[in-house]
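During the reporting period, our protein records have gained a structure token line. One record among many is quoted in full directly below:
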Amino acid sequence: MLTTPTIAPAIRRILVAEDNLADAELIKEMLNRAFPQHLEACFVTRLDDTLAAIERNVFDILLLDLGLPDHQGVDKIDDISNRVPALPIVVLTGNEDDEVAAWALRSGAQDYLPKSQLSPELLSRGIRYAVERKEITQRLQEELERTAEQNELLACAARYDCLTGLPNRLMLQEVGERAIKQARRRKHSLALMFLDLNGFKLINDSYGHDVGDELLKGVASRLNSLVRQCDLLARLGGDEFVILTDILQDLCEVKSLTKRIEGAFDEPFRVGEIDVTCRPAIGIATYPECPDLPALLRYADRAMYKQKKYAALKPTEIPRGVPTQPLTRTVQYHP
């Protein structure tokens, strides 16, 4: 059951689309009685004139007769609502048809008033409630849109590293699993390169975490400039980065990429007033020798730590068959 709004919405400009002159005069009189304060009512007799009026002017509400000479029925309500989403619509009709009323409301009207039942009180209540319903609907729609945007941002944030803006471990898992499925179908190979920074803890301890964070941003930027758009560069956390690529027609292509990566660290990173020098340790594992993403990560990580252990600054690679062979079979490349 409808109750009277606690705060009546302000009604100052009303557009009335009514082609019957007698009905128009009756509506005008009722409006003057229902809204004795200053009220501007604009009357039009055709749908085309209605559309032109709402595009040129701002109205608080539209009273729409469904039987206009250039269009009859409720299907134009959608068009009006799409053109002016904030405009409340009250449908007026000479037919007391519940089905038409329900259809009008589903099409975007806020209320439905049979002309035979019109009175100043009914018209006033219908108009005020229509405005109030529209405001509530608009607020709800805006809130839903904000929620959808927030959910999208949250979903994006869940897949990207907040410091560097690179994809994170979750995104690597999603993209990596798809890449392996695609490589399996096409009988292609993949390479996963696992990188971390030699001496990064010492840099953090010496200069502070702010400098360390800026260094990681610089590393991410340089690495991003080296990979192709179809490759995946991700930060797993700390100073650990991963590159997943399909440039593996032969090992020379991977060697070339690793040389470019090493070359990107030749120049120091400028962080504020400090020049920071660091080098990457790089471990490489390949698919299909490693059958899935966890295996690729595991063996590339081991290869990277083997390189760090022997203080070698050249990338290492898991040879073919490594999942079934001892880690000591890992090969270190030299130029």
In short: The chain has two domains: 13-148, 169-332. Residues 1-8, 311-335 have pLDDT under 50 and may be disordered.
